[in-house]
Amino acid sequence: MKSLFTVAAFVASVNANCDNSCSGHGSCTMDDVCDCFDNWGVGLSMDSGDCSDRICPFEIAWVDSPDINGRTNRYAECAGRGICNRGSGLCECFEGYEGEACHRTTCPNLCSGHGTCEYIEDMVFMAVYADYNNVDFVQDAKTMDYPWWDRTKTRGCVCDAQYTDIDCSKRMCPYGTDILADHEWLVSDQKWEQQVLTFAPENGNLTALTDHTFALTFVSRLNETFTTIPIVFDEPPEKGAMSEFANDIRLALLHLPNKVIDNCEVFAEVRNSSGFPNPRVEVTVTFSGDAVQGPQNFLVVEDYECSSGCTPRITGLGLETAFRKIADNTSNVDYSAPYIAPSEGRRKLQASPAKRPDGGKAIYNSYECGRRGKCDYTSGLCDCFEGYTGENCNTLTTLV
Q1: 3-state DSSP assignment of residue 118
Q2: Phi and psi for 201 in degrees, rounded to 5?
Q3: pLDDT tens, 177-194?
Q4: 30-57 tens-digit pLDDT
Q5: In sequence order, what are the residues at sequence separation of 6 or more whose Cβ sits closer than 8 angstroms to the Cβ of residue 310?
Q6: Which residues lie closer than 8 Å to 141 by C-beta, 6 or more apart?
Q7: Which residues pair with 90 in a beta bridge?
Q8: What b-and-e string marks burial along 319-355, b requiring 16 or more CB atoms within 10 Å of the CB?
Q9: DSSP letter, residue 299
């Protein structure tokens, strides 16, 4: 009997021997089927087999067939945009895709070394927030909510200043007015872009801002961002003009690098309004230089404290924040909305430009090479048509 039991046990052990001993990557079950360790199996079917193949990472598929309920974009090996190397367990992505599971797109030509590759949800609208809507605390460029399935997957180039096109391979050329364009309001005295900055202290006491410092940021049509040196807030008169304060602002803007603002006029005054119970300082900036013809991005007031580890070093301004309604690019501004306390750590917008005043919309327009030349995208220089000259081709040399 003892010998018969030994033979039976031997036969049972032979029958329980799985294929290739599960290749060392799984355990053998009693029915001779391998229970593979994580990320091991066999072939495209990913059955257990002898556990000799690696399984590659899964991600949301770029394209797949719908299920019975019409759902798509399920998880797929290498996101359906690469071939799994069964030996290494790594995805070999097709051109245009990258990542552990081929789950994100590459950017064209790696943005040519003149930009950054950004996810679609991080793309911004306009250059500064106020160009989109100045009814918010944040002054940086506006981002939109993006809820779709390719969030964190689809990417594109965000070009550095002075570069453009889908792969950031082209240099931008100067912008200027079309010297022969038909303009509206030809009898108007105001031809230049005007912007108004409003400074309203939190407690209504303008003298509380005295000797505090702030700065202004300007983003050019070529996407260059420049911030001024610290500007000291002068003690305002009881009412009336603040010529010295206005001159300080003008000089700070004119001293930005590369003469990005080659000329401007600034006027500051203390004002009161029935819809705005406390006195405020309004600063009107008129862009009157050849380099700033036509509509410009809104100036941004840097009113936060910058005491260490940042530049420029400014004390900041304690400014009130309120919602404002802009109507048709005119001076009709609604200050009747309730006061909204700013969130902790976020910039306040009351100092940002509230409006372009009535008549402040520029008659001058702004075109690449003044619409009177072609841009050499290699050099970033305008090749003016015959009869025109200048950096942006807006000087007429021949009158036909």
Answers
A1: strand
A2: -70, 155
A3: 888 876 554 555 556 788
A4: 889 999 999 999 988 888 889 999 999 9
A5: none
A6: 124, 125, 126, 127, 128, 129
A7: 85
A8: bbbbebebeeeeeebebeeeeeeeeeeebbbbbbbbb
A9: P
